[in-house]
């Protein structure tokens, strides 16, 4: 386990939220890393300080009594809108719905705990380390796709998105959700986009967006595969990348 991996897991380790394997890996790393140990000690000191009872105060009884005796605040009734205003609002909403692809649904899932997101972030951070980004370096999809043959029990989907502003850089083998996955590497200006994919028997699902440690993660299921895209590009660019990757050849991506 690297220092980057350990830093991502320190808070969960401190709160005893890791599974046995990750907990043991973090503990083993810290035994030989003074930097991560010092960071953990600082977190532990802050955690202990914020848990002191002296920081919490009971409201005075007099205040409680005043609040209990106070009359309930009256809430003004909302003014009814004119029929024309409702019609204009409905027309605007309808226009927005018609102007966007009906088949493409986005929803935020930052509140939804998903271990796949944390693992994808960890894999992304590892890949950004020197000499760890790609096992095969090529902008040609017909070179990258055959490279995975014999290394995985499935054939990954590989697309050249240079015309959409996301040139293919290469690919590598990675591990997410306890299995080997195909990781494709794309570029958006100076930013790296990692797209991992592996077989998944779950039903198809539209893209879900999450934010983790400053990275944007978009994941979805389609055609018996699970896809996870992650980068530090802005959310709009990563959405555009996913749309371009999902589109069939010859079909321009929605912008």
From TrEMBL:
Pfam families: zf-HC2. InterPro entries: Anti_sigma_zinc_sf, Znf_put. Residues 3-36 form the Putative zinc-finger domain. This is Anti-sigma factor.
């Amino acid at each position: 386990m690297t220092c980057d991996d350990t830093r991502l897991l320190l808070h969960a380790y401190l709160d005893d939220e890791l599974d046995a394997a990750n907990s043991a890996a973090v503990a083993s790393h810290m035994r030989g890393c003074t930097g991560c140990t010092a960071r953990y000690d600082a977190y532990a000191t802050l955690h202990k300080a914020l848990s002191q009872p002296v920081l919490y105060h009971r409201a005075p009884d007099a205040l409680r009594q005043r609040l209990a005796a106070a009359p309930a605040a009256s809430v003004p009734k909302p003014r009814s809108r004119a029929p024309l205003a409702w019609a204009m609002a409905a027309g605007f909403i309808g226009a927005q719905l018609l102007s966007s692809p009906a088949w493409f649904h986005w929803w935020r899932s930052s509140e939804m705990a998903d271990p796949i997101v944390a693992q994808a972030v960890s894999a992304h951070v590892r890949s950004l380390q020197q000499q760890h980004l790609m096992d095969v370096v090529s902008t040609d999809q017909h070179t990258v796709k055959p490279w995975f043959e014999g290394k995985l029990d499935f054939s990954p989907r590989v697309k050249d998105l240079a015309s959409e502003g996301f040139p293919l850089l290469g690919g590598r083998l990675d591990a997410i959700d306890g299995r080997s996955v195909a990781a494709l590497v794309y570029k958006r200006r100076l930013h790296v986009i990692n797209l991992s994919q592996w077989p998944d028997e779950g039903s198809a699902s539209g893209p879900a967006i999450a934010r983790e440690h400053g990275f944007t993660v978009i994941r979805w299921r389609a055609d018996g595969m699970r896809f996870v895209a992650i980068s530090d590009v802005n959310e709009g660019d990563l959405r555009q990348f996913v749309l371009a990757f999902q589109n069939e050849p010859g079909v321009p991506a929605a912008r």
